[in-house]
Design brief:
Layout lengths: L1 E9 L8 E7 L6 H11 L4 E8 L2 E7 L4 E2 L3 H13 L8 E5 L2 E8 L2 E7 L4 E2 L6 H5 L4 E6 L2 E6 L2 H5 L5 H7 L3 E7 L5 E7 L4 E4 L6 H12 L3 E6 L5 E8 L2 E6 L1 E10 L1
Parallel strand pairs: 2-3, 4-6, 11-12, 13-15
Antiparallel strand pairs: 1-2, 1-18, 3-4, 4-5, 6-7, 7-8, 8-17, 9-10, 10-11, 12-13, 13-14, 15-16, 16-17
């Protein structure tokens, strides 16, 4: 048994930047337990698997090293890059069917544009011990779907976070994004999800489904530039379209190979 596999850095135009994802094209679905084991072996934030479901359409699933997740932006962008560059698909946009509904992906020059469901965050009380987990007490707390958001005073506050990941994993079931107005872009962020096996994700498309509506409402701008200021750094174009958001970014191929066992 064997499958092709690609590693692609998403939301970057340079090697060793952005967020690396593994992508495994399949002709038909394989056992979910096997997909989970492959994702664990890859040990990247996400591994995407997809199968064709019609002309210009695929079904897609995403796995962290620990669990399957309902939505992943960077591995979707990476999958679109594989579909264009490795599978030779030339008719765009395409449609990817997922646990979060249909996701359209288009191309704009050498970039990809993801059409994702918006998540409008609402203010909430912070979970107990969140300030201790983040090592910071000055923030406002919001919740959008299953992602918490901590809005901080400035970019330096986000950059300076040194979370207690063990404590954060106990109090945040899925993930938390810390964000602030950017010094050079409209807003910056960092994303932490130790409970699902990702201490810090380099660039997180799903988090921008709530970051985009929040910062659009706060800034009065529907089109913005965002930067995730993890060690690898990633850049995104973000557009608030009401019930949907558009996330734009580039992709860089790192390796191609073959899984065999």
């Amino acid at each position: 048994m064997g499958f092709d596999i690609y590693q692609v850095a998403a939301f970057t135009d340079r090697p060793f930047g952005g967020n690396p994802a593994a992508v495994v094209p399949l002709e038909r679905w394989i056992d979910p337990g096997l997909m989970q084991r492959i994702a664990a072996e890859n040990n990247l934030s996400e591994t995407a698997f997809f199968v064709p479901s019609g002309t210009g359409e695929w079904q897609i699933r995403w796995f962290t090293p620990n669990v399957e997740v309902p939505l992943c932006g960077h591995a979707t962008l990476a999958s679109a890059a594989v579909i264009r560059e490795k599978l030779g698909h030339t008719s765009w946009p395409i449609r990817l069917h997922s646990a979060s509904g249909p996701l359209n992906v288009d191309v704009a020059g050498d970039s990809f544009v993801l059409d994702f469901p918006a998540s409008r965050p609402v203010p909430v009380e912070p979970p107990a011990d969140l300030a201790n987990a983040l090592g910071c007490s000055q923030f406002e707390t919001f919740l959008g779907r299953d992602i918490y958001m901590a809005v901080m005073a400035d970019e330096a506050a986000v950059a300076g976070l040194e979370p207690d990941f063990a404590l954060l994993a106990r109090i945040i079931e899925h993930g938390l994004v810390a964000t602030a107005q950017g010094d050079e872009v409209d807003f910056v962020s960092r994303f932490f999800a130790p409970a699902i096996g990702i201490d810090e994700d380099p660039v997180t498309g799903a988090a921008h489904c709530l970051l985009t509506p929040y910062w659009a409402a706060r800034s009065g701008k529907s089109r913005m530039r965002a930067r995730q200021i993890s060690r690898r750094v990633g850049d995104l174009g973000c557009v608030d379209r009401g019930e949907r958001v558009h996330l734009e970014g580039k992709a860089v191929f790192f390796l191609s190979g073959r899984i065999s066992f």
